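In the previous lecture we treated proteins in isolation. Real proteins rarely work alone, and many bind small molecules. This record shows how such a complex is specified: first the sequence, then the SMILES for coenzyme A.
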Amino acid sequence: MTTRPDDHVVAAMALRDLARCARLEIELFTEDGPWSESALRSELAAPHNRYVVVHGDDGEVLGYAGIGLLGSGEGAESEIHTIGVAPAAQRRGIGAALLRELLRYADEHGGPVFLEVRTGNDAAIELYRRAGFEVVGTRKNYYQPSGADAFTMRRAAAGTETTA
Ligand SMILES: CC(C)(COP(=O)(O)OP(=O)(O)OC[C@H]1O[C@@H](n2cnc3c(N)ncnc32)[C@H](O)[C@@H]1OP(=O)(O)O)[C@@H](O)C(=O)NCCC(=O)NCCS
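The predicted 3D structure, ligand included, written as tokens:
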């Protein structure tokens, strides 16, 4: 059974969500420098960031994501900082719903959106491609401590052509 992205309620991340998100960071990004609860708290507090979550029926966080605005004014660029979905809740449209909300936030400012993703992370790359991102570069040895490479991906500003 699949659940369409529209069925997931995406809410602003709250302080009470942080402990669970930090546990998911460890589970999902063990080798790639998972963020601690205090690092996530700083991300949440930063003025030009937007962090969102999807909760399960029991109130537990199933997925979370964050984006930051770089600079200010019309056409300011944005950068996706993280997106993660609990393994047991993956492939139910939660990642797509979270990403859609991040892009809605970015589109309020009208600029392109960038992100880094592990070169072998086919699930995330496919998620991003379907949302209009394309690979524009490779960053060697980007993740630590793993030393894994990252693709830089870019989504053109809403309403404009891609560069490829
Ligand atoms: C990447 C991630 C966030 C996707 O979340 P998700 O809730 O499972 O994704 P969705 O169910 O919304 O999938 C949306 C689309 O993404 C693509 N996708 C998702 N998982 C995929 C997989 N394992 N293999 C191939 N494509 C996949 C598909 O196109 C999918 O659409 P479909 O189910 O209609 O085919 C999740 O796999 C995850 O948390 N991975 C570990 C953390 C991570 O790598 N985060 C990204 C860091 S850059």
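Summary for your notes: The CA atoms of residues 10 and 101 lie 7 Å apart. The chain has a mean pLDDT of 92.
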